[in-house]
Amino acid sequence: MSSQPPSPASDVPPWRPWTAPAGVVLALAFGGLATILVDIAGHAAGSSLTHPTPAVSIIGDIGFDLGAVTAALYLASVQGRPSPADFGYRRVRLPVAAKAFGLAAISYYGLTAIYGTIFRLHGSDKLPSELGVTHSTAALVAAGAFVCVIAPIAEEFFFRGFLFGALRRVRIQVAGRDIGTWLAALVTGILFGFAHLGSAPLQYLIPLGFLGFVLCIVRWRTRSLYPCMALHSANNALALGVNQLGWNAPEIVGLLLASWLVIAAVTLPLGARTPSLA
């Protein structure tokens, strides 16, 4: 097992493998601190500490994700100034992105369907209900923005942009073949599943872990974070629209397209001048 610097033509970022576990610890610390501060401020404004209002819950969840982003940015900058391309903000040709998106979606939903049939999955993500999506239009809009836009951007930045990149620096030879990237994807997927421990039922953590693994493969094969954010957003839009709101197909498609447009407006400028490697 060894750690080697990436070649100039590689999309493997320059930060060291030790930043991966450090990033998880710092993300939990920064995110937890942000959530506590939001809860305290909300309590001072009349919100309950045990059952916070939807507004406090949404702001707290945003704060937690921003804490993870802050941890990643800090550790990535320890050994120099990272570029957007280091995190995966890299242009990718549409046919490459569409193929990766389609294969990943088929793999994930196919396995999830089989898993759900075998283990009789029931229940749904608790997060949307905690955010008050059925209480008011304002809460629905805010929750939709967080679930389908903010979370995909922040979580892909941390898990596929930072964490997976750091773990890929570890080279593990088995029978003359390097399996380091596959193990990096597996570990990242497991951590991604556990990250949803508080919001999703336990039986959903395995499919979510597989989603995290699949998103790593998409990041690896396309060398870009954009298809990952698109698939992550699509999955969240489906979960919100179907499981929580009971929306019809046009409504869910509208939510998905609006989310993709906002994600593109926020993140495409970061990769505008970065050449594609795929």
Strand order across the largest sheet: 1-2
Residues in helices, as a percent range: 55-70%
Distance between the termini: 27 Å
Which term fits the overall shape? globular
- Oligomer designation: single chain
Number of helices: 9
Structural class: mainly alpha
| Strand and helix order | EHHHHHEEEHHHH
Largest sheet: 2 strands, antiparallel
Radius of gyration: 19 Å
Mean pLDDT: 88
| Amount of beta strand | under 5%
Task: Find the count of extended strands (DSSP E, 2+ residues).
Answer: 4
| Low-confidence residue ranges | 5-9
Descriptive account of the structure:
This protein is an all-alpha fold and 278 residues long. The chain has a domain at 93-270. The protein has 9 helices and 4 strands; from the N terminus they run βαααααβββαααα. The chain has helices spanning 19-44, 54-77, 94-119, 127-130, 137-167, 180-194, 205-222, 226-244, 249-267; strands spanning 2-3, 170-171, 173-174, 177-178. Strands 1-2 form a two-stranded antiparallel ribbon. Strands 3-4 form a two-stranded antiparallel ribbon. The longest helix is centred in the middle third of the chain and has 31 residues, at 137-167. It is globular, with a radius of gyration of 19 Å. It starts with a strand and ends in an 11-residue tail after the last helix. Mean pLDDT is 88; it is low at 5-9.
